Amino acid sequence: MSRKPFKVQAAAQLLGTTSDTVRRMVDEFGIDVARQESGTKTRLFSVENIFELAHYRANRRKEKPAPKKQVVATMYAPNSGVGKTTLASNFGTIFSLRGFKTLVIDLDFQANLTLSFGYDPALTAAEAIEAGISPSEIVEHHFGNLTPNYPLGRVTLQEAIKKPFGEYGPHIVPADLNLDRLDAMLMHEMFVNRNADLTLARLIKEGLSKKDQYFDISEYDIILFDAAPANNRITYGALLASDHVISPVSMEKFSPKGMFYLSSILAEMQDQFERSPDLIIVGNFFDPNRVRAMGQLMAITQASYKDAWLDSSIRRSEDFSKALIGESELPVVLSKPGSQTATELCASANELLERMEISKSCPNRT
Question: So what's the pLDDT on residue 361?
Answer without folding.
Answer: 42
